[in-house]
Design goal:
- The structure is a single chain.
- With about 500 residues, the chain is an alpha/beta fold.
- The chain folds into 3 domains: about 55 residues, no CATH class; about 90 residues, OB fold (Dihydrolipoamide Acetyltransferase, E2P) (Beta Barrel), CATH 2.40.50; about 290 residues, Purple Acid Phosphatase, chain A, domain 2, CATH 3.60.21.
- Helices cover about 30% and strands about 25% of the residues.
- The chain is built from 15 helices and 19 strands.
- It has a 6-stranded mixed sheet, with helices on one face.
- The longest helix is centred in the N-terminal third of the chain and has 19 residues.
- The chain is globular, with a radius of gyration of 26 Å.
- The protein binds fe (ii) ion.
- The site of fe (ii) ion has 7 residues, from loops.
């Protein structure tokens, strides 16, 4: 019997008699001991074999692994499902909040009534938000034990706190520290679940590129065919400078964040805007283009509000009956909206975790968060995405997106902090970074319509975001022709005049 088994027995671990008589892999037993720590109280051959199998599985190189995709069969939802989902969300986010130093030893809301002029910290969901005539913010905060009032005064000493509170939205779950007085808590700090401060900006071993595309809208009569063709020519190494051609060769992954096709019956009289009027044919057109992307590139596609299938999030990938042509492409992985994938995992690198979300909720937050609205609204997808990461939820306010809860799991919860958070929907191209997370809003491939300009929207179409996975440096390639670039400038000017 080896020394590792011996020391395990000395520690009180029960080792099966067959194992004692055998030659065991000392290194493997050491790894098992480290992995299980104090919870290891029994060891036999089966545990060793299972661990070995799992280890081999983990060490496999895997260019694309689906971490989470929604694929549940449809069933009738009940009111109880909503209650379960909200309780579930409370538990998940409260457990993130409890890890924060300021929220150690929180008080349940029902206990506040016995506490006068005491310092407290509480965690709750915002049920209501109002302003007094002196502009103080009054929140109704609820936890599973009760509801309390939280007051944030407006004065020069707490400007930052007031601005934070001003951006709070209904249904989000926050931590509050402050002092009790009568039946309320006067807040001095608001704490979000947040993402960790010290998340490492993970960098790959090889110079490989991730390409982000959004909102292709194949089948629309304003699909930018000429520009998309230029992109296809570049990714095949047919056009561009030597440097650009060199990058094209190193593209290993491509994501498309939904609105693959223009869809049918998405809005009244959409017929007039369709080049291809049949949904299956639209997906065939999509497949015809996507097949022109070199087959060594791993393509991950999520779905959007223009795609086939149900409209509510979480949205399953487009049904095979309409989009078979896409599912059949060997290098394409279809996932739900939202969905998580890992790319580039090797035996000594954990890969990058990607959160793909078409972005159904983005416009709500652009329009309703005072600080984001004042800084440009929909033009500031960076601020919207940061706002969602801080809340650890893709749609903290119920009603900010079409949502059909799944009783077992809240698929809009950001439980895993991704390396890349990639969205679409608002048809603008942007790249930014927040606490080690690259936030990308992909562009679109439809011409800007007069209607969009009238509505004050300023899409930035025909852009491709490229990320060098070795350096995490982004690059945006603009495929608009000279004339279109001029036209875009002109439209931007007009939109400004309308503001
Ligand atoms: Fe779109």
């Amino acid at each position: 019997m080896g020394s590792t088994l011996n020391s395990l027995i000395e520690k009180g671990v029960l080792v099966s008699p067959e194992l004692i008589e055998k030659e065991v892999d000392e290194e493997l037993v050491k790894e098992i001991t480290e992995f299980f720590g104090d919870s290891l109280d029994y060891l036999d051959e089966e545990i060793i074999n299972n661990f070995k199998k799992q280890k081999q599985e983990n060490e496999k190189e895997s260019p694309v692994t689906i971490i989470q995709t929604y694929n549940n069969p449809p069933k009738k939802r009940t009111y109880q499902d909503f209650v379960k989902v909200f309780n579930n969300r409370y538990d998940n986010i409260a457990s993130i909040l409890r890890t924060r130093r300021e929220l150690e030893g929180t008080t349940t809301i029902s206990r506040l009534k016995d506490m006068q002029n005491e310092r407290v910290s509480i965690i709750g969901m915002i049920q209501d938000k109002n302003y007094t005539k002196n502009q103080a913010i009054i929140l109704k905060l609820e936890d599973p034990t009760g509801i309390t009032t939280v007051i944030i005064r407006k004065d020069d000493n707490n400007k930052e706190l007031y601005e934070t509170a001003n951006d709070l939205v209904l249904d989000e779950i926050i931590g509050v520290t402050g002092r009790t007085a009568k039946d309320a808590v006067f807040a001095d700090k608001i704490i979000f679940p947040e993402i960790p401060l010290n998340k490492e900006l993970k960098k790959g071993r090889e110079e490989e590129y991730l390409v982000c595309l959004g909102d292709t809208h194949f089948g629309s009569n304003v699909f930018m065919e000429k520009e998309f063709k230029k992109f296809i020519d570049w990714i095949n190494g047919r056009v561009g400078s030597e440097e650009q051609k060199n990058i094209a060769k190193k593209v290993k992954y491509l994501v498309l964040t939904g609105d693959i096709v223009e869809g049918v019956g998405v809005y009244p009289s959409q017929e007039e805007d369709l080049e291809i009027k049949d949904i299956t044919e639209q997906y065939e057109e999509a497949a015809r283009w996507i097949k022109q992307i070199p087959s060594h590139i791993h393509i991950i596609i999520t779905t959007g509000n223009h795609d086939a299938g149900r409209l509510s999030e979480p949205q399953e990938p487009p049904p095979i009956e309409f989009s078979k042509s896409l599912w059949e492409i060997p290098n394409v992985t279809m996932i739900s909206n939202p969905g998580y994938v890992n790319i580039g995992k090797t035996k000594d690198f954990p890969g990058f975790d990607l959160l793909l979300y078409h972005g159904g909720s983005l416009i709500y937050y652009a329009d309703n968060i005072p600080s984001i609205r004042s800084l440009g609204g929909q033009k500031r997808s960076d601020l919207i995405m940061k706002f969602l990461l801080q809340r650890r939820h893709l749609a903290p306010t119920h009603g900010s997106t079409l949502y059909l809860p799944d009783a077992e799991k809240d698929y809009l919860l950001i439980d895993l902090v991704p390396d890349f958070f990639i969205t679409g929907h608002i048809h603008r191209s942007s790249v930014s970074e927040y606490r080690g997370v690259s936030m990308i809003n992909a562009s679109c491939w439809t011409e800007t319509t007069d209607d969009q300009v009238k509505r004050g929207l300023e899409p930035l179409p025909a852009r491709v975001t490229l990320i060098n996975l070795k350096t995490r440096q982004p690059k945006i390639m603009n495929y608009l022709g000279k004339e279109a670039k001029e036209k875009e400038k002109e439209k931007a000017k007009q939109a400004k005049q309308l503001d």
